[in-house]
Design brief:
- This protein has helices at 3-6, 13-22, 36-42, 60-69, 73-78, 87-98, 113-121, 133-147, 158-174, 189-197, 216-223, 246-255, 264-277, 288-295, 315-328, 345-355, 388-400, and strands at residues 32-34, 46-50, 80-83, 103-107, 125-128, 150-151, 180-184, 205-211, 258-262, 304-308, 332-340, 359-366, 376-384.
- The protein has 408 residues and is of the alpha/beta class.
- It has a 6-stranded mixed β-sheet. The chain has a 4-stranded parallel β-sheet with strand order 5-4-3-6, sandwiched between helices.
- Helix 2 (13-22) packs across helix 9 (158-174), helix 9 (158-174) crosses helix 10 and helix 13 (264-277) packs across helix 15.
- The protein is globular.
Length: 408
């Protein structure tokens, strides 16, 4: 797109630079760290932009602060209302507290308790309404209309998009020769902001990444206008948005030709890589860019910067995600097998696993299943291995020893 056309978009480089001036003493310049694993796979440098280390645990403070700071004194006295599954909630609550403004945040009924506690810890009032973010957004807009408070949309406002775009300016400063920026994408505020921030650098390609179960952008771009999904289903609650915002869509459709999707298994593997190899706690949404690189490392021209958009994850969810990630990477496997119900049979199975160097996590010995013959027993086993090749070797050893393996 010619440079003159950039100026006709709802958010421009000048808007992002103005937002950066407002945030100079507010938002942290988050670090950029290298990933040896992904660098080896891509054949060139890959780095992480660590917005999971931002104040409030995600990039959301940037846009929320710019939006609220530009309200009039009268508007701030009336307070603000927002809706979020967690990250925007914390961003708005923190921004409002910094600006001396009251905030009410509507969160879905299933919002993680740590995110609720963090939002309240910044001084906001939390109301739990709706089954998902879409229902919470409707409730928040109605509450703003009822009370006279200002509704702070999580992504569909020029000030919010400009604030999020300051991540892009920092990337250009920190990695001047960057060629590809990979961005987790829900409603599109972060993607649009970064695209606007780097639009004057045509050699820099910006790639959006959505969860396959909440991928509204590919269909919307094909249609030429925002299209609502019938429903969303993903563990990545931070990008579980069923319809692009009008403001970010206008920018994304003009500047971002490539929005990819990733599976739940890929998100789990990416989260595990961030934690295990980079020592970074990242939520599923924040790892979407990493997942896309893992899926197709040759598709991204280095130097690559993957934005880790947030790190607010419920510890209980983290536990489940790590197990899921281990399974997706071939290091955790569960199966059932049947054997003759005689003394020493279970010990023989465990001996085979020990000889194969598999770590047994759980064993359940069943004798009362009506599907079993009178002299049969069924054993459910969970094991941990060193990876896919080791798993294949362990299962091959069991099969050669005569054990039938049942999965699922």
């Amino acid at each position: 797109m010619p440079a003159a056309d950039h100026e006709r978009l709802p958010v421009t480089l000048a808007d992002v630079r103005a937002a950066a001036e407002m945030l100079a003493e507010i938002a942290r310049v988050t670090p950029v760290v290298g990933s040896r694993v992904l660098t080896a796979r891509c054949g060139g440098e890959v780095r992480f932009k660590c917005e999971n280390l931002q104040r409030g645990g995600s990039f959301k403070l940037r846009g929320a602060y710019v939006r609220i700071a530009r309200l009039s004194e009268e508007q701030r006295r009336a307070g603000v209302v927002a809706a979020s599954a967690g990250n925007h909630a914390q961003g708005v609550a923190l921004a409002a507290s910094l600006l001396g403004c009251s905030a009410t945040v509507v969160m879905p009924l299933g919002a993680p308790l740590p995110k609720i506690a963090a939002t309240e810890g910044y001084g906001a009032t939390v109301r739990l309404i709706g089954a998902d973010v879409e229902e919470a957004l409707v409730a928040a807009a109605a509450l703003a209309e009822e009370t006279g408070a200002v509704f702070i949309h999580p992504f569909d406002h020029v000030d919010v998009v400009a604030g999020q775009g300051t991540v892009g300016l920092e990337i250009l400063d920190q990695v001047p020769d960057v060629r590809t920026i990979v961005v987790p994408t829900g409603g599109g505020g972060l993607l649009a902001g970064i695209a606007a921030a780097v639009a004057h650098r045509p050699e820099v390609r910006v790639v959006g990444v959505q969860a396959a179960g909440a991928a509204a952008y590919p269909e919307s771009i094909a249609a030429g206008h925002p299209v609502a999904l019938d429903g969303v289903s993903t563990m990545a609650d931070g990008i579980a948005i069923g319809r692009p915002g009008a403001v970010p869509f206008a920018v994304v459709s003009a500047l971002v030709p490539d929005v990819r999707t990733v599976s739940e298994e890929s998100l789990s593997r990416a989260l595990l890589l961030c934690l295990e190899r980079a020592k970074l706690v990242v939520e599923p949404a924040g790892a979407a860019g990493v997942a896309a690189i893992l899926d197709d490392p040759q598709a991204f021209e280095p130097p690559v910067v993957a934005v880790l958009s947030g790190g607010n994850v419920d510890p209980l969810l983290m536990h489940r995600l790590l197990r899921h990630g281990l399974a997706a990477s071939g290091r955790f496997v569960a199966f059932r097998t049947r054997m003759t119900d005689r003394p020493g049979a279970l010990a023989a199975l465990l001996h085979e696993l020990a000889e194969a160097d598999a770590n047994v996590l759980e064993v359940e010995h069943l004798r009362t299943n009506p599907r079993l013959h009178v002299d049969e027993a069924e054993v459910y086993v969970q094991i941990e291995t060193r990876g896919g090749k080791h798993t294949d070797a362990v299962l091959a050893r069991l099969r050669s020893a005569g054990y039938p393996l049942i999965f699922g």
